[in-house]
Design brief:
- The complex is a heterodimer of chains A (363) and B (255).
- The longest helix of chain A is centred in the first third of the chain and has 12 residues.
- In chain A, 5% of the residues lie in helices and 68% in strands.
- Chain A has two helices and 18 strands.
- In chain A, strand 7 and strand 8 form a beta hairpin.
- In chain A, strands 1-2-3-4-5-6-7-8-9-12-13-14-15-16-17-18 form a 16-stranded antiparallel β-barrel. In chain A, strands 10-11 form a two-stranded antiparallel sheet.
- Chain A has one domain: Porin, CATH 2.40.160.
- Chain B is mainly β and 255 residues long.
- Chain B folds into two domains: 107 residues, Roll (SH3 type barrels); 136 residues, Porin (Beta Barrel).
- Helices cover 8% and strands 60% of the residues of chain B.
- Chain B is built from two helices and 16 strands.
- The longest helix of chain B is centred in the N-terminal third of the chain and has 15 residues.
- The radius of gyration of chain B is 23 Å and the shape is elongated.
- The relative contact order of chain B is 0.15.
- Classes of the chains: A mainly beta (363), B mainly beta (255).
Amino acid sequence: MTALLLIFIILFSHDSLASVEGATLVRMYDDGKTQVLSPHIDVVANVFEEQLTINAGYAMDFVTSASSDVKTFASDTITDERKEIGTSVAFNMDQGSFGVGYLQSDEVDYHSKLYSMSASRNFFEKNTTIGLSFVYGDDNIQSSGDESYQEYMTNETYTLSLTQVLNALSVIQFLVDIRVESGVLNSPYRRARQETGTSGVYRGLQENLPRTRNRYAYTVKYNYFLKGLKAAWAQSLRIYHDSWGLLSGTLEERLTKQWGKLILATSLRYSHQEGASFYKDIYPTDIGPFYTGNKSLSTYDSYHFGLRPTFEFSHKFSFFLKGEYYIQNFQNHTDIGDINDSDDNEKLSIGAFIVGVGLDAKF
Amino acid sequence: MFRPQRILTPIVFLIVFSSIPSQAALKIETLSDGILVYSGPSRRFRPLMRVRKGRKFAASSTIVQGKDGDFYRVLVVSARSKRKRIGYIFVDEPVSIIGESKETEEELTEIRSFAQAESSLQLSTWFLKDSLYIWGVGYQKYFAPEFYTKAFIGQLFNKVSGSLTTGVEMGMDQSFSGQFSLFTSFAFGVVVVGQEDVLFPDSKELNYLVVGTGGLRFHADQYASVSLGFGQTAIINHNNSYTSPTVGFSVEVGL
């Protein structure tokens, strides 16, 4: 893959009409129980007087986890590896663009293919832009513990956006996302916790989720340039709900300021989620039709702080660092720890550091 | 942004024309790539073609006033069929007068302008998996250049039943070469079925429809176009859904 990317760069950088941009990022997530290392490379070439943009990317995730999900019903630490390749082509025209893309992600037990199409159109001297995009996903789910396990899930995402330049200093954007998932949405590994009738003793049940999920998200983004500070201030509000009864709101603030060759971006994000209607921390013996051990379907608050300094060595080369801290406080998800020891039960709380380093270069 | 050519070219146009003794039409040449020739005197009309730098046209001396600006009335001759038709180029575009044409003003006047109207009638079909298909007829209106909305009504068929479907669609065309454009569209609507569980497990009497397609449109003439697109369809109700890849085909006639 790396060789393909290099060929890609060489081919297009020899075209006098082309400009090629490469970006790399290595990101590390660590919450004390789960570590994820994610290297990523992305190459973009603009050819034919920038009328055509070709993009190719490659990413990997190396996961090591001994989280509560894993330790409750399995004794060992798990490791996993995910590879992702993607490519897209966009035609840039006078008053908009049209693009198609493909993304493939492979793990030992999960294979995903995404096909996308998007278009944008600007009006009124490019002050108003309407965007349409849709993505079709085809997932194949397997189980490393059961070779006969073979399930499928399809998903479709539709996005409609409206961007309006309000004045020389501010831009507002509205986005509506509809995502429809159909097929097997269970994880073959995840267990719901059920009372056994004996106090403090639980059994793990293979989770059973509805076979469809309709998801809706509404986002408004507002960007403003603060003349006094000479800084860009971006904020966004996102409301999400779905057919499983999940409801969440996310507010994000971001401030970016440049001092000579140093650009510093800071961000703050808060999110609150009301869990799925069928989610329970511990299910009673008289269990309903749907049950899950997925903590992301529970009720929680999360906070995210980010800092990203970028050093622009020249207009063709920049280097950036990334430091983030993420807190997730679950209201109705208990970290059982040892399933046979009820004394170590406590509400789950995650605190994670995310650090990254990257390079951007133009040829 | 102020572009001097917007004022200067029409003035030069008139000066040059007044100095020509006969009623010969003028000849103009495009000075950059990607100039759109519209089928009517407004940027809301469907474009006839996108032309490259150096393309020459016979043009009438009379500048046509459209709803959103002034236009050159030009003669477009099909390279293959040699069929002649009238097109319109926005005066803001970079064009230059290079002399007089062998065509006369009268010849340009005689050719009727079959403008693809701001509104049109579109017959469309979407083919889904599991032998489902949807057909519909829609009234389409262009609110801005190459941007339309459409109201449609039709039927969704599967192996056992037919059901009523109606909704709205929005879409955009991007002319990219000659008579071809790339299009993308979103349709939102309802599917009304006589009974439950007909379309998919737990389907209701009232279900919602979302269709996204994109593909290639061929503008057969000023008043007709056909398109072939690929995309996806979701039929959903409160709790359940059906998803499918989709192939779409449409025929459009200007009103």
